[in-house]
Amino acid sequence: SLYHEQYRPQFHFSPKAHWMNDPNGMVYMNGTYHLFFQYYPDGTTWGPMHWGHTTSKDLIHWEEQSIALYPDSLGYIFSGSAVVDINNTSGFGKDGKPPMVAIYTYHDPVKEKTGSSQFESQAIAYSLDAGRTWTKYSGNPVLQNPGIRDFRDPKVSWYAPAKKWIMTLATQDRITFYSSPNLKQWTKESDFGAAKGAHGGVWECPDLFPLTYQGKEIWVLIVNINPGGPNGGSATQYFTGNFNGHTFTPGDTLTKWIDYGPDEYAGITWSNTGKQKIFLGWMSNWQYANEVPTSPWRSASTIPRTLSLKKTDGVYRVASVPVKEVDKQIATSQTFKNITADFAHQPAAKPLKISLQADASHDFELTFLYADDQKVKVGYHASTKEYYIDRTNAGEHSFNRSFASIHHAPRFSGEKEINMTLILDAASVELFADEGLTVMTSIFFIKSPLQVINSLSSLKNIRIETLNGIWP
Ligand code: FRU
Description:
Blueprint (H helix, E strand, L loop, with lengths): L17 E12 L2 E9 L9 E7 L6 E7 L6 E9 L15 E8 L1 H5 L6 E8 L7 E2 L14 E9 L4 E8 L3 E6 L6 E6 L9 E12 L2 E11 L8 E9 L4 E3 L5 E4 L5 E5 L8 E5 L14 E2 L6 E8 L2 E8 L7 E10 L3 E3 L6 E8 L4 E7 L4 E7 L4 E5 L15 E5 L6 E9 L2 E6 L4 E6 L6 E6 L3 E9 L5
Bound molecules: beta-D-fructofuranose (FRU).
Family: Belongs to the glycosyl hydrolase 32 family.
Keywords: Glycosidase, Hydrolase, Signal
Protein name: Glycoside hydrolase family 32 protein
């Protein structure tokens, strides 16, 4: 039945049917979290892009809405963001009601075919009924292409000190910042990144926001990149530093990743959530997104994650942990202490939240065992200080040669004890180690239900919690 098909995530958003990629227009308004997404309603592979729409009161249960934006004569509707224009700077508001404004990229496939490099531009649309129906601005596009092939994915936020909007835009191998008083006229401020960070692929889907560390404001610049991720294909890198309303200056020259796994991409944060920053990504990878064996939908979102700043060895790092609303879904909880070896537990057939503590001086590994010796392994190598997820024997993988592999991520914490939380769903595992300093997301496609959780190494303790599924 609907939402209970084979491989269907039971704890993550996925569209009822058809193709999804990037999260778009994430905005919080009047008690509702809006999630728009790159959507192709006529098939299960990437096609002419629309903005699909889903809403949630708690970031866990989602109700899919009707399509928000359809392609038109200016092109497909590519990725972008949405804001609540509280001061009605755009003038789209009516009767004192602030408009919701979407800022998105037009990708013109006709112009693209002519060989022109100017087929991407930025445009806006507004909604006066909290995202249900949309009117495209008659003056579109609001930002013309200056001759840059990859010119897309505007993330807009209000910069209070100068009372202006800032657009953070991916422009091929860099980020370009623009400013505007009204979301309609945009002025270029500066470029960042031509020789900074990872450049194994094109820069896409950026985000810019401040976080505080011990009372100090530090700016985070998220830059998604495809390919060139740490485990191949697409991934989310970020920089920490300062933004003064005109330019971004990084505080270090390191390449840092929000999620080191293969299956978190195009992740950005919700707008209008105050000081709290909540992040969500597309749970796939362009290497095989179009080929994964699901039907009648393709792709899911990651679990929403709360971001914070931490400092290790003098370096600021963004940590992400599952939003606290996850815990409201806990149905049962069992804790096992001082595990020496040969731990085996048969969990209920539900999504699971698993939390463990282990001594960082030795290796450990959890095996999730399914029928026919299919398994997902999650562990830690003390000698290399690396976490890993192994999906080499995790069900269906014949759809793509690069899929069945082991993925690694560095540990940054120097603590003697490792804390790890896993969210295990029907077709994914998300690993949050050391309070979110190292994060990895992997998808997999095993037909049968989970049978046993095994550990052959010593663990200080492990807590296994079943989560109520989110679909009716
Ligand atoms: C990232 C991306 C964006 C683009 C969209 C098209 O996955 O390539 O840069 O706007 O997907 O669907």
